[in-house]
Every structure is written in C-alpha cells, then in structure tokens.
Specification:
The complex is a heterodimer of chains A (110) and B (730). Chain A has 110 residues and is mainly alpha-helical. Chain A has 4 helices and no strands. The radius of gyration of chain A is 18 Å and the shape is elongated. By secondary structure, chain B is mostly helical. In chain B, the strands form 2 sheets. In chain B, strands 1-2-3 form a 3-stranded mixed sheet. A two-stranded antiparallel ribbon of chain B has the order 4-5. Classes of the chains: A mainly alpha (110), B mainly alpha (730). The interface between A and B is medium-sized, with 13 and 11 residues.
Chain lengths: 110, 730
C-alpha cells in the first residue's frame, strides 16, 4: 500500500494537507473560544468541520482508499442539515434575549 | 489429669449407658399445664384491656381469677401427687439427636416436673400471687385507666415465668423462667417510668441480675458437657447410680456449684450482688411484696435446692454459701437498723432473711431453708402490704419518724394489728412461724461441722436480735405511741383542703387479715408428723423437701440414704451425718435454740420498745451521743449510708466502665465516624468543590474545559507513543 501511496500522493503533499487541516482546526477552536457572537461561533464550528474533511480527503488519497472521500460526502450532507438546524436555534436564542452574545446563556451549570 | 481431658472425651471413658429415668411419666396430668396457661391468657386479656382503654377494674378481676385458677390447679396437683415425682409432657421444645452416644443428644422439652419441692413452691407462689393481686386491685386505683392494665399484665407475665421456673423438668426451661421473672421484675420496678429513680432501679436490677444469669447459663452448659443431660430426672438417676461415675471427677463438677451459686446470689440478692433489691422498692408495693419479698427472690433458694446434688459433690461450695448467707444476713440487718424509710427497712430485712435461707442451705438444712422460705413468704408479704397500705393512705409517706400511733387511728386498726403479727413472725417471737423456721436454720449451724460454722451460728443469733430490734423499731414508731402524722408529698386530687389519710378498704383489709392468718398458720406444719418417712423430723415441709434432690438436707435423713453413696469420697457426707451429735450448753442444739433465739428475739423487741416507744427521746440522745464520739461515730454513719457499698461499686465498677465507655464513644465518634466514614465521604466532595468552577455554565468556559481535556488526552497519547508505553509499537 505504501508503494501505491507513494506513487499517488507524495509524503510532502500529505504533510501539507495535514498542516492545512491542523491550521483550520486551530483557527476554528481559537475563534470558538474567543468570539462571543453566536453566529461567528457557529461558523467556527463549521471551520473545524472543514479541517476534519480536509484531513479525511488527504488520508484517503494517501492510503488509496475511497471510503475517506465517501465519508466526506456524508459529512457535507449532515453538515448542511445541521447548519439549517443550528441557524434556526440561533434565531430562537436571539428571540429569547434579543442579543447574540453567548455570555447571557449560563444556565447550564451545576 | 488435665482439666481439658476431663472436659471433652467422655465417650472414650467408661461412660454408663444412657440413663433411664425412674420418674413416672404422666401425660394424663396434662391439665397441670393450666398453671402456665392461665397467666398467659390473663396477659393477653390485660393487653386487650389496655388496647381498649378499659377504665374499670376488669384487668384486676381477670388476673385474680386466672391466678386463683392456677392456685386451685396446683392444689389439685398436690392432692393427685404420687412420690417420687412425675414428669408431665406438655410440648416438644428441643429434642435433638445426632448420634447414638450419651453426649450426642440434647433434650429440653416443655414438660413439667412435679415433685414435692416444686409443689411447695408453686402453691405458695400462686396462692400469694392471687392474694396480692386482690390487694393490688385496690392499691393501684389511682392508676385506673392509665397503667392499671399494664400493671396486671406484668403480674401475669411474672406468674407465668415463675411457674415455668418452678415446674420445669429441665434446666433450660428453668433458665427461660429465670430470665422471664427477671424481665417481669424489670417491667414492674420500672412501672412508674416517669420517675427517673424507678427507671434507674429497674435498670440496676436487670443489669445486676445479668451477672447471675451468666453464671446460670455457664452452669447449664457445663452440666450438659459433664453429665450429658439437663433433665432433672436423668440427673437424679446419674447421681443415684453411685459414686464411681467418671463424671464426678474433674474441674467441671467443682465449677458447676459455684456458677449455680453465682446465679442464686444474683436472683436472691446476696453479697456481692444484693444491691439491686433495696432499690427495687421503687416499684409499686404489691410488686415489692410479691416479687421482691415472697416469690421471685426465693428462686435462688429453689435453684440450689433443686441442684443440691452438685453442691454435695463439692463441700467447699456449701461452706461458701453458708458464709455468704450469714454475712449478708448480718450486713443487711445492720443497714436495716439505720434506715428511716419503712419500705427500705423491709427490703433490707428481706435481704437479711434470704441470707438466713442461704445459711440454711450451706449448713445442710434444706428443710430449714425451705421452711423459712415458706414462712417468710407469708409474713414478709404481709409486712410489705401493710407498708403499702400506709404509703397509699398517707400520700406516699414512708418515713417512720413522721407517722406515729397508727393503731389509735380510725380505720387503721387492722393494718396496725396485722403488721404486729408480721413483725412478731419476722422477729422470731416464740411460737410464731418465723420462730420455728429460723430455729431450724440456727440450730443446724451448730450441728453441722464446717469451717467456723459455730461462729456463724452465733453471728446468726446476733443477727436475729438485730432483726427483732429493727422490726419492732418500725412497729413501735409507726403503729404505737401518740397518734400523729405528716402526709407525704404525693398529689391526691380527691382532697380539697386539709389532708385526710384514707384508710384501706375491704380488698386490702381482707388480704392483710388472710396473710396474717397465714403467717400464724405457717407454724402448724412444724407440728405435723412426717408422712414420707417417719425417721425424719420437721413436719410437713420436710415431707415437701423429701422427694427432691435436696432430701439430703433433712434432719435424720443422711445415714440411710443417697448422700453417702453419692459423695463418700468427699467430706460432705461427714457433715450430713449427725454422728457427732454436738451439744450446745449441754443440751440438744434444737432444744437449746428455742431458749436462745427466743430470748434474743425478746431482748431485741424490748430494746426497740424502750428506745422507740417508752423513751423516744432516749433514742435521739443515744444517736446524738454516738455521732459525737469519734471512735464509734463511723459505725452508725456507715450503717445509715449502707456501708458505702453503692459508693464502692460506683467507684470500682461503674466509674471505670463509664470512663471506658466514654473512651469508646470518643474513639467511635471521632476515629470511626470522623476519620474513616465521614473522612472518606469527604474526599469526593472536596474534589468536586475544587473542580466546581469548571462548570460555571458559560459556553466558552465549557468549551475551554473540553478543549483542554482533549488536549491533555492528545498530549498523553503522544507521550505514550513516543516512549512506547503501550508495548513499544503502535
């Protein structure tokens, strides 16, 4: 398999893809932790999704295994549905408190 | 032989075959079970009365009727009795067999063993129980609708347990009754449970009795391991089989009588366990009369008479009993002399008279002991009931300095004169019942050979003088002299203004008169001829002892009968024999004792008359003089303070136990609870408190925790991979 992988997708290309994925994930996490706007936080979670997708496509190519790409199609579909749901939730939360600030939601504690 | 060897391998020794009882098995007498059944029925009915909140005297009527039924049943049993004893099977209780051998079965059935000794006991127990219940029906009137049913339920429990104790055919059922009477005693002493003194007295009685009960339990265990049975008839057969039984050697046969003795000393209030009995007077007076004077406290005498063969095997145990009895009699009499509470004087007098009975057992006159039990039951019950009548009528007044001249007061004459009869009998005034029964014991102390028995005899005679003195101190103070009184401090709602003593009415007076007649008539058995064996002396009571294991202690018995056969290798037989025929002042001791004890009794009586009737001021002057002389002042002071025995026990037993208990409490509270249980429980709570800020609820902080946790896991995984902690290769 490593023979096939080396032909199809060089180690350097894999490293680049993983680095891109790590960067996307870090930006997503940093954004999620630092921003208080609910929509921006939601976008940050989407960013983390993309990081995972990039990693899966890269590994799929590296191992010459298409299940990685098949998973990506599934994840995109689910993410689209989840985006609709999450945006609807954001709208509902906004209606409750008339603000998009995440700080007002602190009920979920011991 | 080492003790351990004699302890277990009986089967390897030449054990005789399984003993066959020679007592008659009489299932056709099973109606005798009514004696046990009737008090139980009465208990249930009294319980129902309590549940239905009956406000009449119904519980008293029920109890008196059922006890009278039990008494009539026991009299019928006596009339149907055939020597040498009958076993009446009632119920199977414990009947275990796990092999063929002698020590491989255990039988203790709910059967009755009827011989003359148990008949003597059950007749006076049920008879006095009936009379005292009738008395109590009036005495307990202030509690009608409150504790009335509870009281009579307690009396029923007591009679059931006492009947089980007396009539049982094995030691285990006796133990059941033994514990039962202890429980009933606790129940009834603590009857006035609102009073802390009554509760404390009940606890004291129960706890002190536990010490004796331990002795009884161990004794029964040792009897079983040594003799292979706890049934009286089988034990008698073993003893009758002769002196060469291997069971009669070894340490257990020496230990058994001492353990039985401990039990008897606990229940019958002897040194060193007598302290509970005077305190037991916190109970209602009928209880004091029935349980703590006439019947229950004689259970110890009964136990020793019932197991007398064990004592004959170990003569030292009889010497100990004699000395403990004699010393208790003297000590209690000295305390009784210095008390002011008449009920307490009677309590110490009971301890003292029980001491006489043990002295009788110790000097081998079981007949004397049984006779004294019999007469004492009548006159002491009478004395307690008169004290109770006074206490009832004068609102709880019991101080003999505050009541005087009762015999001049209207309505109190019967009380005063019946009390005189009781006092005469207790003091051993010539020709009263107490005179004959006490003489039987005193004379035998001089007849029987033993360590210092002669000193003991003189000590007992001196005690008889003290008895006459303190008895008549009560009577002359309370019943004679000028009429005057101070009421006690009990609240009586039925009197509007000034206090009027309410004299006893029909029920109390009738019982007092009946008991007074009984105290007088109890002298008659002494003059009756012996039916069972005309070589014996001692009249009817000797007959009643004759069929029991205690027959060795009847005067004139020993030469021909089993005592020699049982224990000829021991010295006991020498004591039982009257071969020596000692004399007292050149006379036969029994004849001399009439003069000596009669004189001593009259001297005590006259001394009391002088100090407490004719010259009451002289008594106070003498008392003041005694207290002013430093060389003698300790004596009356010690007597009044009961020889500091309670204080001594407090310092030696109670205080160390209290301290130990508190050490355990502190250990339990702070080490077990504080450190072990609560400490461990505190760990998760502390950790949780420490981690609590992580759960503040803000979305970002939750996310930080999650991201941080994921980061830590990732870091650890990276480290594991780096250093190969998962087995080197991943």
């Amino acid at each position: 398999m490593s023979l096939l992988a080396s032909e199809a997708f060089s180690q350097a290309s894999l490293a680049h893809a993983i680095l891109l994925s790590g960067a996307l994930l870090s930006i997503g996490i940093a954004g999620f932790l630092s921003r208080r706007n609910l929509i921006v936080m939601f976008l940050c979670t989407e960013l983390m999704f993309q990081a995972v997708i990039v990693a899966m496509v890269a590994f799929g190519r590296w191992y010459w295994d298409f299940s990685g790409q098949v998973f990506v199609i599934f994840i995109l579909t689910v993410a689209a549905a989840e985006a609709a749901l999450a945006l609807a939730l954001v709208v509902l939360l906004y209606r409750r408190r008339s603000t998009l600030d995440a700080e007002v939601w602190t009920e979920l504690r011991e | 032989m080492t003790p351990i060897l004699t302890f277990i391998p009986k089967l390897s020794m030449s054990a005789p075959a399984v003993p066959v009882s020679d007592a008659i098995i009489s299932p056709n007498l099973s109606w005798a079970g009514l004696i046990l059944l009737l008090p139980l029925v009465s208990l249930v009915l009294c319980g129902l009365c309590a549940a239905m909140r009956v406000k009449s005297k119904l519980p008293a009527v029920i109890t008196a009727a059922s006890l009278a039924g039990a008494f009539v049943t026991s009299v019928f049993l006596y009339l149907n009795y055939e020597p040498p004893g009958e076993v009446i099977p009632l119920l199977d209780w414990m009947n275990l067999t796990w092999g063929e051998g002698r020590f491989e079965s255990f039988t203790a059935n709910f059967s009755l063993y009827i011989d003359s000794l148990s008949l003597l006991w059950i007749m006076f127990v049920t008879g006095l129980g009936t009379l005292i219940t009738i008395y109590a029906s009036e005495y307990m009137e202030p509690d009608l609708g409150k504790g009335y049913s509870r009281f009579f339920a307690g009396v029923s429990v007591f009679l059931f347990a006492m009947a089980a104790l007396v009539l049982s055919d094995n030691l285990l059922m006796l133990y059941l009754g033994w514990e039962g009477v202890g429980f009933a005693s606790y129940w009834l002493i603590g009857y006035y449970f609102e009073r802390p003194a009554a509760v404390a007295a009940a606890k004291k009685a129960f706890i002190v009795n536990r010490i004796g009960d331990l002795g009884l339990a161990l004794a029964i265990y040792l009897i079983w391991t040594t003799f292979g049975t706890v049934q009286y008839d089988e034990l008698s057969t073993i003893f009758a089989a002769g002196s060469m039984n291997p069971e009669f050697e070894g340490w257990t046969t020496s230990a058994i009588p001492f353990l039985l003795m401990l039990a008897a000393f606990g229940k019958s209030a002897q040194l060193p366990l007598y302290v509970w009995l005077p305190d037991a007077m916190e109970g209602p007076t009928p209880v004091s009369a029935l349980i703590h004077a006439a019947t229950m406290v004689t259970a110890g005498i009964y136990l020793i008479a019932r197991t007398y063969q064990f004592f004959l095997l170990e003569p030292v145990s009889l010497h100990v009993i004699a000395w403990v009895g004699g010393l208790t009699a003297l000590l209690a009499a000295t305390i009784g002399m210095a008390q002011h509470d008449i009920k307490r004087i009677m309590a110490y007098s009971t301890v003292s008279q029980l001491g006489y009975m043990f002295l009788g057992l110790g000097v081998l006159t079981t007949y004397g002991a049984a006779y004294h039990v019999f007469t004492h039951a009548f006159f002491k019950a009478l004395l307690f009931l008169t004290c109770g009548a006074i206490m009832h009528g004068f609102a709880g007044q019991l101080d003999l300095r505050k009541i005087s001249g009762l015999r001049h007061m209207k309505g109190w004459r019967i009380t005063a004169w019946t009390m005189l009869i009781g006092c005469l009998a207790l003091a051993g005034f010539p020709l009263t019942s107490g005179f004959f029964s006490k003489d039987a014991i005193l004379a035998e102390a001089f007849v029987t050979q033993g360590p210092g028995f002669e000193i003991l005899g003189w000590m007992a005679i001196f005690t008889a003088g003290l008895t006459a003195y303190y008895t008549f101190r009560v009577w002359f103070r309370v019943c004679a002299g000028p009429a005057s009184f101070e009421p006690g401090d009990e609240q009586h709602d039925d009197h509007g203004g000034a206090f009027h003593p309410h004299a006893p009415r029909f029920a109390i007076n009738m019982v007092l008169v009946l008991l007074a007649v009984g105290s007088l008539v109890a002298a008659v058995p002494y003059f009756m001829s012996n039916q069972a064996d005309d070589r014996l002396v001692g009249g009817w009571v000797a007959d009643m002892v004759h069929d029991s294991p205690a027959r060795g202690g009847i005067p004139g018995f020993s030469e021909t009968h089993a005592v020699h056969a049982i224990a000829d290798s021991h010295e006991a037989a020498a004591h039982a024999g009257e071969a020596a025929h000692p004399t007292l002042f050149g006379m036969d001791p029994h004849a001399a004792m009439y003069w000596i004890s009669g004189t001593v009794g009259i001297v005590g009586l006259l001394l009391a008359a002088w100090l407490h009737l004719w010259r009451r001021s002289a008594a106070d002057a003498i008392k003041a003089w005694l207290y002013s002389q430093f060389w003698i002042a300790w004596l009356p002071r010690a007597m009044e303070r009961k020889w500091y025995v309670d204080e001594f026990y407090h310092a030696v037993i109670r205080a160390p136990l209290w301290i130990l208990g508190h050490i355990f409490y502190v250990f339990d509270r702070f080490i077990i609870d504080g450190v072990c249980v609560d400490g461990i429980a505190r760990i998760p709570r502390g950790v949780a408190r420490w981690l609590q800020p992580l759960q503040a609820g803000a979305v970002q902080s939750l996310a930080v925790v999650m991201a941080g946790g994921a980061a830590i896991i990732l870091l650890l995984m990276a480290l594991f991979m780096q250093f190969g902690w998962f087995g080197g290769q991943v």
